[in-house]
Amino acid sequence: STEHERWQPQPTCRLRVHIRMSARVIVVRLSPGFDDAAISAMIRHTNELHGLVLSLYGTGNGPTHKESFISLIKEAVSRGILVVATSQCRKGSVALNMYEV
Asked: C-alpha distances in angstroms, 21 versus 4, 10, 24, 38?
C-alpha cells in the first residue's frame, strides 16, 4: 500500500461535483501574535464576502482570550458570513481551547 492509502480512507460513494459554490470565500492562515486589523478590513469593507476559513495554528487552537478577535468573529457571523475553523495540521481536529494563547 502507498503512503496515501494509509492516511486517506477509501471513498464510500461516487464523486459528486458541486458547481454552484461561492468563490467569495477567503482563507486566513493565523500565526501567534497576528494583527486583527487585516481580518477586520476584510469583514467590514465588503458586502460580498460569504465565508471566512480560519486556518488556526498547530492543533487547531486560536486566541480564545483575545477579546478583539472574538468580537470580530461575532461581527462576521452577524453580517451573515460563514466562519469555519480548521487546523494547519494534515491530520487531527480543531481543539480551540487546547492551549490558551
From this structure: 27, 25, 9, 25
Distance of CA 51 to the CA centre of its chain: 9
78 three-state secondary structure: helix
Is the full-model pTM beyond 0.85? Answer: no
Helices 36-44 and 67-78 cross at an angle (nearest 10°) of: 20
Q: What is the pLDDT along the chain (101 residues), one digit of tens a residue?
A: 455 556 667 788 898 888 888 889 999 988 888 888 988 998 988 889 999 999 887 666 777 778 888 899 999 999 999 999 887 776 666 555 554 44
Q: What are φ and ψ of residue 26, in 5° steps?
A: -120, 140
Contact 101, 69 (CB under 8 A): no
**Residue 65 vs residues 1, 17, 20, 49, 86: alpha-carbon distances, Å:** 44, 39, 37, 26, 18
